[in-house]
Amino acid sequence: MLYGQEHVKRYQETDGEEGHDWQGTTTLLLTTKGRRSGKRYTTPLIYQWDGDNPVVVASKGGADADPDWYRNLKEDPEAGVQVRGERFRARARTATPEEKPRLWQKMVATWPDYDEYQAKTERDIPVVVLERL
Fold first, then answer.
1. Phi-psi category of 4—alpha, beta or left, where left has phi over 0 and alpha has psi -120 to 50?
2. 6: left (phi over 0), alpha (psi -120 to 50) or beta
3. What is the pLDDT of residues 31-43, one digit of tens each?
4. How far apart are CA 7 and CA 95, in angstroms?
5. Per residue in 42-84, pLDDT tens?
6. Domain spans of the chain?
7. Domain 4-132 falls in which CATH fold?
8. Helices 100-110 & 113-120, crossing angle to 10 degrees?
9. Given phi > 0 = left and psi -120 to 50 = alpha, else beta, which region is 24?
10. What's the CA angle centered on 98, arms 96 and 103, to 5 degrees?
């Protein structure tokens, strides 16, 4: 099973042939700029399409703190995205309260554990839309 930096490496080397399809769902690679270090960090994340834009969930497994990649995006919303062999720039935004229920259901349909993660924390887990630039 691919995970973490090995997942990133194999995904990049194979244009997603290895790593895109993962545990019954699909993943993309999100590259953000560290809010303190300024370094680039790439994270594999479960995604679904909403029109032309991928959507991801800042769940961190139901932890009480937001994941680092989401905190980075709040500081600098421009990011790199790779879906299979396609790479593009995107501007991240947190889903509005009006659109979140629909997007949350879409994401739970592909990864049912998101409902469990939300139940584990008082934090309102953000759904993030990656709008192409």
1. left
2. alpha
3. 999 999 999 999 9
4. 27
5. 999 999 999 999 999 999 999 999 999 999 999 999 999 999 9
6. 4-132
7. Pnp Oxidase; Chain A (2.30.110)
8. 120
9. left
10. 75
